[in-house]
Design goal:
It is a single chain. By secondary structure, the protein is an all-alpha fold. It has a domain of 51 residues. The protein contains four helices and no strands. The longest helix has 24 residues. The mean pLDDT is 83. It comes from Rhizobium meliloti.
Length: 82
């Protein structure tokens, strides 16, 4: 194998390892969201705290939809070079 191929394979392996490290369990995500809302000053068990958690979840879902839409070739149609 050439040096360039080895470098690309190495970068791909590092990317896969880093991607695996970024996945969170639902429990970890919930704990992080709760800590975020608490850091905003909301008290656990209040309606405001629940609204904060809901807004974080809705924002996460909107980002996921936008990412899927931006990366879906079939939704955007074919791209023609001019």
């Amino acid at each position: 194998m050439t040096t360039m191929t080895m470098r690309l394979l190495g970068l791909a392996a590092v990317g896969l390892v880093l991607a695996a490290c970024q996945s969170m369990s639902p429990q970890e995500r919930r704990a992080r969201d709760e800590n975020t809302c608490a850091s905003y000053g909301f008290r656990r068990g209040t309606d405001a705290f629940a609204n904060c958690l809901q807004r974080i979840d809705l924002d996460r879902r909107a980002e996921a939809r936008a990412f899927r839409y931006d990366n879906d070739v079939f939704l955007r149609g074919p791209y023609y070079w001019h």
